[in-house]
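Entry 14. Structure prediction run on the chain below.
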Amino acid sequence: MNRSNPTAAIVALCAALALPATAAAADTVKVTPLGGIDGEFCAQDRALVFEDPNGTRLLYDPGHTVAGGGDPRLGRIDVILVSHLHNDHLGEAHIKAAGAGSCAKPDISVPAPHSNVVDIALAKKSKIVTGSEMPTFFAAQLKAAGGDPANSQLARFGGSATVGGVRIATVAALHSNGVDPIFIDGDLGRQMKAAGIAGDAGPATGYVLRFSNGLVAWLSGDTGILADQQSVIHDYYHASLAVMNMGDGFTTGPAEAAYVIDGLVKPASVIPSHANEVGTVDGKVRPGSKTEAFIKAVKVPVHVPLSGHTMEFDAAGKCVAGC
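Output returned:
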């Protein structure tokens, strides 16, 4: 007589029920901040690493807080994204290592003559994908540093580039985009520095990223309030995760950023960035900070980017781990 084993049947049923959850957990986009102080959200923090479920890794705005191409936190980097060429995003210099200096004032004492972005691209053999007139700038810097200019790729407004299964589009950001004269050789660079002017690299940009699991993320870059944030980011791209620069003075402040998120883009989740302050102390939001003001003003879930702490987002933009 063929007699079934009830214990084995129960084990098999439990395993079958667990499969969807396991598959869902594997089908997330990982976001890891690379800031100045581990476990904190600090004044110069902009850099984020996005990892697609297929393994493609993108570094966004490394600025000052990635310790060059040898930073052990980087791992493999396939693509570098740069919203604009101001030094706190491009990196004319960088920290010696994570933890150097303080949260308010990191030790940015290591010069990067061709920029931190280019140094990382050379070390990691990464593509640099930018819009406006930035690709030619990066091509020239790569060539000057002994790299391949072809690794600087264009994704101009209205178009896109797909690298490693991730679709990358640039979108409008309301901000300036000047190149520091230290990156311009000879008398011209010296004269521009003396005159207090910067080179023009076209409009600043944000990014829209479509990952292989279906997640659409908007990276605001430094920006003010734009009608495009509703008509393009919300209505056309349907972004469900936002990275919102909200430090005021140089970009939207907490109240303006909250309006952009709640009134225009309407994502499922938001990661604040570019706070230009000590946003957290011992991993907790600092009372009276702009970070706290933004969290209180916005209606969607806010996930503070603590350096080195990985968050995972599903296709709908919901944080499902590390939140």
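The chain has a mean pLDDT of 93.
Filed with the rest of this week's runs.
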